[in-house]
Write a structure and sequence with these properties.
- By secondary structure, this protein is an alpha+beta fold.
- The chain has one domain: Electron Transport, Fmn-binding Protein, Chain A (Pnp Oxidase, Chain A, Roll), CATH 2.30.110.10.
- It is 21% helix and 44% strand.
- The chain contains four helices and nine strands.
- It is globular and about 50 Å long.
- It starts with 6 loop residues before the first helix and ends with a strand.
Length: 160
């Protein structure tokens, strides 16, 4: 199993990449969440995320299929919205594992205004990977893929 990091640890290890990824996630309300169904097939769901107290958080309605997926198998991938056909701002991805938080006081303290109605599930994401993809060149003629993996650090690849 890959090592995991809190959002704060990722920010310390790769500050520029973490800031760019967070900017893409904060730019629009809805993101795409990939979880694994009981039979192992993928499930893609819309979701919202928040960055609070040095962590990446997911709130979900009680007994939603995506929450049940994460309870069974905590592996996940998040993708920022792809609204720009020219990819001027790029796109961003986060992979990791969801840790469910059940303590009512912690749930109340971590969420404010964006949580689903009670009861709800709250998950903290331990991050294993960040990826940001942009276009490079003038005019743009190739992909620039910046990534961070726990234990492996930063990497930059250009593909034509």
């Amino acid at each position: 199993m890959p090592a995991m990091a809190t959002w704060d640890e990722v920010t310390l290890a790769a500050p520029e990449l973490a800031a760019a990824v967070r900017q893409r996630f904060d730019a629009h309300k809805h993101k795409a969440l990939a979880t694994l169904r009981q039979d192992g097939s993928p499930r893609i769901s819309g979701t919202e995320v928040s960055f609070r107290d040095g962590e990446l958080w997911l709130g979900m309605m009680d007994q939603s299929l995506k929450a049940l997926d994460l309870r069974r198998d905590p592996r996940l991938a998040l993708h920022s919205p792809m609204l720009d056909a020219e990819m001027a701002e790029g796109d961003a991805k986060v992979a990791g594992r969801a840790i469910e938080v059940t303590d009512p006081a912690t749930k109340q303290a971590r969420m404010s205004g964006g949580e689903p109605p009670d009861p709800f599930h709250l998950f903290r994401v331990d991050v294993t990977e960040l990826v940001r993809i942009t276009l490079g060149g003038d005019p743009p003629d190739h992909l620039v893929i910046e990534s961070w993996h726990e234990g492996a650090g930063l990497k930059r690849v250009e593909r034509r």
